[in-house]
Fold:
Amino acid sequence: MTGVNDGVAHKVSGGGNWKAQLKEKMQVNKKLVLVKIILFIFYAGSTAFLPYLTLHMQTLGITVKEIAIIYTFLPISSILGPPISGVFADKSGRYMVVMVLNILMSTLFHFLLLYVEPRPLNSLSLTCGPSGHHLTWAACNLCHHQDNDTVLHLTLKSCKYTCEDPPPELQMCLHAEENLPSCLPLTLADELSINGTVLSWREEETCSHSWYNMLYEGQAFSSLTCPSQCPMECQVDGAPDCSHPDDPSNNTNTFWIYFTLRMIGTFFLSSSFTMADATTLAILKEHKGNFGVQRLYCVIGLSVGPLLSGFLVDKYSRNLGVVDYAPAFYLGGALTVLAAILTTRLQFTVDTADDKVLKKLWQLVTRVEVDAFLFMVLAQGSNWGFIESFLFVYLKELGAPTYLLGLTMTVGNLVGSPIMIVMDKMVEKLGRHVVFVISFFVYAIRHFGYSFITNPWWVFPFEILEVFTYQLMWLAALTYCPILAPKGLLATMTGLAGSIHYSLGRGVGSLLGGFLIASYGTSKSFRIFAYISIGCGFFYMIIHFFYLKHIVAEREAQHQEEAQLEKPEEEKSMLEEQPLGVIVKDTTAGSGRKESSH
Structure:
C-alpha cells in the first residue's frame, strides 16, 4: 500500500517513457507517511472498544431501558462536539492542539468507564426435574414478597443437563390443567418463551418461585416438569427489576456516573474524528496528496482494531473464566495515546479566522450552496442511519447467523479499500454533484435489494455497493468542505458536515425507520426509503443544474486560484527549516506565526 503515489503526478514529455511513468507512480510522498500512520493507529484504537460498549454496560447491571436512555442522549454530544471543536480550531489556528486534546480526553473518559462501580447482578435460573421445577434468584431482593400472583413473560435459554451422562436432547413437559399426567413435549433447541403466574417462597437465604397458569402458544397449562432423571438448569430472561429504593440492585449511581462519563467521552470522540479529517485536509492542501489513499488507512484501522481487541477479550476471558472487556479498553487507550503523541510531530500550515468568526459562520450557513450541501449530507446520513440501525434486525428476521452480521461489515470494507486509491480521480472526473446523485440512486438500489431478499446471504451484493453510498460519497463531501468554507473555517465546516451526517442524519433515519417498521413492516420500510432516496437524488440534481451549477463552478475556480497563490517561496523555505510544530497563517495580518508543538 505504500507503493501508491500520493504526490502530484508530473507529465512525462516525449513519446511516453513508460518506465519513468511507472517509477513516478510508485513513488511515496514521504511527507504524508506520518499522516497514514496516525490515521491507521487512531482509527484502530478508537474502534477497538466501541463495539463492546453496550455489552460492557450490561456487565455493570445497567438495564435495557437505561441503555436506551443513554443512546437517546448521546447524539446531543456527538452533534455539539465537532462544530465547537472546529470553531475553536479555526479561531486559534491550533489544529494540532485541538486534535491531540480531543484524543486524550476521549481516551481518558472512556477509560474511566472501567472504574464505574457495577450494580449487584441478581440473576434468575430455572431448575427442572420429574417432580417439578423452581425458579431461583442468585440473591434475595427486597421485592420478593411482592411477586406473588404476578404474571410474567419469561424466556428460558442456555439450558443444559447437570449430570455426568446427559440425554441427547433437552426436553420439557407442559401439563394441561384438566389432565395432569398428560404432557406436551418441548425440545429446547434454542430459546423458549412462556407466560405464567408465579408463586414465591423463601427458605433461609434462598428466594424462589414456581409457575402455574402457564400460557404457551395460546394453550393453558398448570405445571412444568422435565421427564429425565438428569436435572436440567436454564438461564431466565425477562424477570422484573426490583423497584424498592433500598434494594442494592436499584442503585442509580451506577447509571448516572456512567451516563456522565459517556456523554463527555462521546463529545471528545466525535470531535476527534472530525478534527482528524480537518487536519488531513489541511495537510493535503499543502502537500497535494490523495485524500482517498489517506482514508484507505482509516478503513484498514477500522478492520484491524475490533478484530484484534475481540481476540484479546476472548483470550483474557477464557483464562479468567468470565467475560471481561477491559483488554479492548486497554488496547484502544494505548493506540489512541500513541496516535496523539505522533500527531504532535506533524508540520502543516493552516489559515486562522479573524475576530468575526461568528459572523462568518452565519454567512456560511446562510449560503444556498452550503444549505444544499448540508441537506444532501443529512439525507445521505438518514439513509446510512436507517441501514445501520435496522439491517441487522432484518437479517435476524431472515434467520441470519450472528457471524454473518459481522461479515457484512468486513466485506464492505475489503471491497471498498482498493477502490479508495483511485477515488480522488473518480470524484475529479465525475464531479461531486454527480457523485452525490449516484449515491442517492445506489442507496435506492440497496434498499430495494434488501426488501426483496429471502435468504440473508443474498445481502452481500448490496453490501458491496457501500463503496458508492458511503466511501465515495463521503470522500466527495469532505473534499467539498474546503471549497465551500470561507478562509479560516475549514475545521468548522468539516465538523458541521460530520455531525449532521453521523449524528443528526443517523437519528432522523433511525426515528423515521422505527415509525415505518412499526406501521408497515421491515421490508416495506426499505422500499419506502428507496423511493425517498430517488426523490432526494432528483431534487438535488434539479437544484444543482438549474441554480447551483454556476455558483459552485465559481467557488471551485476561486478555490483553485487561492491554492495557487497561497504559498509564496519564502513561506515554503520557512516551513522546510522548522523541524516541529505548525506554521499558522493569520489571514487578518497576512503573516505567519509558529505554534509550539508542546
